[in-house]
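From the thread on structure requests for the teaching lab: each student submitted one protein with a one-line request. Submission from student K.M.:

"Model Damage-inducible protein DinB from Vreelandella titanicae, tokens only."
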Amino acid sequence: MELQPHFELMACYNQWMNTKVYDAASRLTTAELSEERGAFFGSIFGTLNHVVVADTIWLKRFAAHPASSARTLAVIVDLPTPQRLDELMFDDLEGLKAHRRWLDTVIINWVGALTDDDLSTTLSYHNTKGVASKRRYSSLIAHFFNHQTHHRGQVSTLFYQAGVDIGVTDLLALIPDEASI
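Reply posted by the TA:
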């Protein structure tokens, strides 16, 4: 499997699913979005904020990488660095939704610029506790997309419990059927 086209698919899936999730969030009241539901980050709103926090942290790390594709992340560098994984970067759905749409466009542009050389390098970074690490860049990008999918899975359950169906969530919906090509 070629990694760059796979990451492009994941970036498109990320954008598609975030659109569905935020459309579903728009059907709930602020109180329903903020209701403690026993999830890792408490509420639907807390979980959506967490995904933005984690994406921001990872994109800032990726922007510091010497890979050629990192230049497409220059717009991320000046964003405030979240200090906690449960930090609320936005306190209203519309602000969070607009930022999410912007982030998804940044992610698509960044992934579109990835090269095989970029993907075969390593990235040195410090985690949120300050522990140094050095890992394969492509593996970290896979983690980046997997983390989003993990928490959107939680959010889809929280929406279901709140009586909101977000519809089809399978990646398969975005994979072209070779028989129809």
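TA comment: The longest helix spans residues 137-161. The chain has a mean pLDDT of 94.
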